[in-house]
Amino acid sequence: MRTVQPTLPETETDKDQLPALTRAASGPLSVDILTDMASAKTDWLALERDPLNSLHQSYAWCAAWSQAMGTPLIIVRGQISGKTVFLIPLEIRRKGPFRIARFPGGNFNNINTGLFDSAFAEIATTDDARQILTDIRHQLRDRVDVLALQNIPLNWRGRRHPLSAFATSENQNRSFQLPLHPQFEDTLAQVNAKRRRKKFRVQTKRLNEIGGYEYYLTRDPAKQHELLDTFFQQKAERFASQKIPDVFQAKDVQRFFHGLVDVAFQADNVPLELHAIRLPGHDDAVAAIAGLSRKGDHVICQFGSIHSHLAADASPGELLFWLMIEKSCTEGAAVFDFGIGDQLYKRSWCTVVTVQHDMFRALSVKGYLPALGYRALAAAKTFIKAHPKLYGFIQSLRARKETAKPETDSD
């Protein structure tokens, strides 16, 4: 598999916003801070239409997070001649004595971009990025110590990120994508179709021997919530068996994902939808579950789980990916994104590895030390993840610490 990111399929962006914008004709850039999501909703939804802006900065995603966490958001807004050209939603979290501003969704976001007008993104300069960061520092220094923007691809499907000049470090995690073709066979051809088809036959044969299987996708909200609760249960069992912390355990995190399930969606705009493999011969027990999101032609697998022991030798999780990818091809998607985190099953499916970057910036005098600490920590995590034995040891220590904690409703 290639380790240098090849070009993902590019996509048409909304050219009606600031048409034919040039630096000479655009006018000065002004930056201000909003504290009410609703006041920015019209501009927010307009910028969302650009398919290269991440679904993790969508209005629905951020609203669900804010409501579940009980955390009000602030929004950095950029305008040119009264036209909104970018929005950067942030939540403020305390880490000890420090106030950290980050994207809503935190570690559950697979890709972050902010929301940028496509024409502005094309002409934005290093001076613009410098002004944006200077204005953010000036307007937030009494409320925020560190700006921590993480998991940002500096180049995403042909678009350079307007703040790319100010990345401070590579993120320790990569994300993995599979370009899709209208014909599923053409998609499979990228990842050794012969071997894949043989594996599919073996999986289906084993499942048929125990009563068959059903690819289960329901639009009934109550049943979607049931599947989500089953996922939380399966994941908790899996994490416990591996002696690692359960990142889905907190009640506010579970409220967040349940809130996403409740958001109305269209075929090509899905905040969260649960897919599953059920086994009719075992009272419709759920052998595998995955949560998918879709933004335009970009499908993201947010999470997945398998039954702790049922049909394990049939690899139901792998089978579910086959079926979801096949479905995505028939529905016109161009990218199936396995998200961040290096796993063997991702490498077996994906031909694209995307490097993401972090931006840690001190906004107050007090913030300089933790900003440096964040950069050092990112470097340390990169080193640890490059050494699997050390990574496993650290995970076991974290699991012991989490087990010793009383259960709380917040992170």
- Write down the CATH topology of the largest domain: Aminopeptidase
Helical stretch tally: 13
In the CATH scheme, the class of the largest domain would be Alpha Beta
- Into how many domains do the coordinates divide? 2
Provide the β-strand percentage band.
25-35%
The overall pLDDT, averaged over residues, is: 89
**Unreliable segments (pLDDT under 50, ≥5 consecutive)?**
1-5, 14-20, 402-411
Global morphology: globular
Which radius of gyration do the C-alpha atoms yield? 22 Å
Can you walk me through this structure?
This protein is α+β, with helices and mostly antiparallel strands. It is globular and about 65 Å long. The protein is 38% helix and 26% strand. Helix 3 runs antiparallel to helix 9 and helix 8 runs antiparallel to helix 9 (251-261). It folds into two domains: 23-173 and 356-404, Gcn5-related N-acetyltransferase (GNAT) (Aminopeptidase, 3-Layer(aba) Sandwich); 181-333, Gcn5-related N-acetyltransferase (GNAT) (Aminopeptidase, 3-Layer(aba) Sandwich). It has helices at residues 23-26, 41-48, 59-69, 118-123, 126-140, 184-188, 193-209, 221-242, 251-261, 316-330, 344-349, 368-385, 388-404, and strands spanning 29-34, 73-80, 83-95, 98-102, 115-116, 146-152, 155-156, 159-160, 169-179, 214-216, 269-279, 285-295, 298-306, 335-340, 352-362. Strand 13, helix 10 (316-330) and strand 14 form a beta-alpha-beta unit. It starts with 22 loop residues before the first helix and ends in a 7-residue tail after the last helix.
